[in-house]
Amino acid sequence: MAKKVQKSMFFTVRDENMRTAKCTIQRSSAAILGTRYKPSDQTILFFAAARRVGQDAQALALCRLLVDRKINIDINHGDALRQTALFYAARQGHADTIRFLISLGANPNVKDSNGETAMFFAVRKKRTAAVKALLDNGAHLKVVNKWHHTCFSLSPAEVLPVLQEERQKKRSYDESGPGPKRRRTAAEELRAWADEWPIKEPVVGKEIDFREEDVLAVKSVDKSTGKHGEYAVLSKCPGKCAARLRLSEKEFVYDHAMMMKDELFFEDLKPEDWCQNVGVLTDAGGAVEGIKGVVTGKTGSHFTLPLVQKETQTIAGYVHATYCAEEHGLRIAHLKVDEAHIGQGLGVLLLDAAEQHSHSIGWKCKQTFLSVLKANARARKCYAKAGFRVASSTAAAGWGAKKQHAWSEWQKLRKRQLGHAAPTRSTRKSVHKYALKTPAA
User: What digits encode the pLDDT tens for the residues 373-393?
Assistant: First the structure.
């Protein structure tokens, strides 16, 4: 009989009207209140925190009452699934109860047996107020569960704006080290943006499975450089690799922005401004979906060729090109070799592969042209080695609502393609340093 009374106590506190629930806590002995609900190894605090949705004030009052009774209950006690009372407050959307439990020492980043925190439950159940309460009290957003999901990847549309706002705050403030948070500089914020994985799933697309028939060009790295293995330029790749290519694209934006870090206007520009400055889609512009369409061959007027380190099957850079019919030319819009792979002649490899691919898909290109910032000495050296020459120059300026600034000079470079003019010494040499391959039909 005592066991039945004890069992009913837990559900009375959770489900009955407030008056009955309070009376149960007040009239039960500390020893009884300190027992656990055997099937799931939960304390009475779990049931108080799990009052119905909309009963946050009642849940808070019952939790306070239990604390006032000075019952020996561990605030971070984990049940059979390693969940704490905070999980149940989060699931029910009890924001004030969440704040109270955390003020008592509840850890918002405890992981259950599935590797999930209380935040996952608040997000899944669309408890916006609970999500905000958890974020305000130190809950992390980068936790990955055992199925490789984060709160972002599971977030319904109703909660996503709150998570995005918090991510922006994290990007804007430096929380490392002791003391209060420090607002990041524009350069630090831009770096944080460039490093941020661009889609919900944190692991999808980091490695690339490709077919040998999709290899356009290969290059072996000289072991004397301290690096090893082969690199390959692909004619196409799986759409899931669009996120990883976007990461290289953001690095492309960052590199160009940092050339202007000493200019007075630098602090005024956000990542979105720099994207527009160099002709890259902003995050809000469907960048990943746009890249996915290009690399899977769904667009006929432009293409992106990934550069892959074959041994690790990871992306090392890319080239993005478009067709200019009026000039019978191939326009190199972006060319990026990731920092860890620079100095191996891979920029020239990408350029020649782009020219070869343009002919294989029927573009009648007699010349290749591109634009480069005069401040970008490393890129200009690469392009000169590939046979490009300066055709014209124009002043560059700020975009959007920002005040116009003449902050550098774009140089338009041009190169006659092989077969339409005698190759220069530099282009002739570059073609024979590696094998260009004809893609399978």
Answer: 888 988 998 899 889 999 998
315 is written with which tokens? 């992306």
Q: Which residues of the chain have pLDDT under 70?
A: 1-7, 173-181, 222-228, 284-285, 397-407, 418-441
Return the structure tokens found at 143.
């936790």
- The verdict on pTM exceeding 0.85 is no
Q: Which pair of tokens denotes residue 105?
A: 């020492």
Q: Give the type of residue at 90.
A: A
Q: Are 386 and 348 in contact (CB under 8 A)?
A: yes
DSSP state of 239: G
| In the chain, % of residues over pLDDT 70 | 85
What CA–CA distances, in Å, run from 171 to 152, 157, 194? 16, 21, 10
- Compute the distance between CA of residue 369 and CA of residue 322 in angstroms, rounded to an integer: 10
- Structure-token pair, residue 253: 């934006």
Identify which of 440, 386, 392 has the alpha carbon closest to the alpha carbon of residue 418.
Answer: 386
From CA 424, how far away is CA 387, in angstroms rounded?
Answer: 6
Give the Cα separation of 349 and 346 in Å (integer): 5
**Amino acid letter, residue 282:** T
Buried (b) or exposed (e) across 331-349, using 16+ Cβ within 10 A?
bbebbbbbeebeebbbbbb
Task: For residue 140, count CB atoms less than 10 angstroms from its CB and return exposed for 0-12, middle for 13-18, buried for 19 or more.
Answer: middle
Separation between Cα atoms, residue 153 and residue 162, nearest integer Å: 14
CA distance 233 to 254: 23
CA distance 25 to 292: 58
**What does DSSP assign to residue 42?**
B
Report CA 212 to chain centroid distance, whole Å: 29
Could you give phi then psi for residue 143, rounded to 5 degrees?
-70, 135
SS3 content of the chain, % helix, strand, coil (to 5): 45, 15, 40
Show Cβ contacts of residue 389 under 8 Å, excluding neighbours closer than 6 positions. 413, 414, 415
Report the b/e string of 266-281 with b at 16+ CB within 10 A: beebebbbbbbbbebb
Q: What is the largest CA-CA distance in the chain?
A: 100
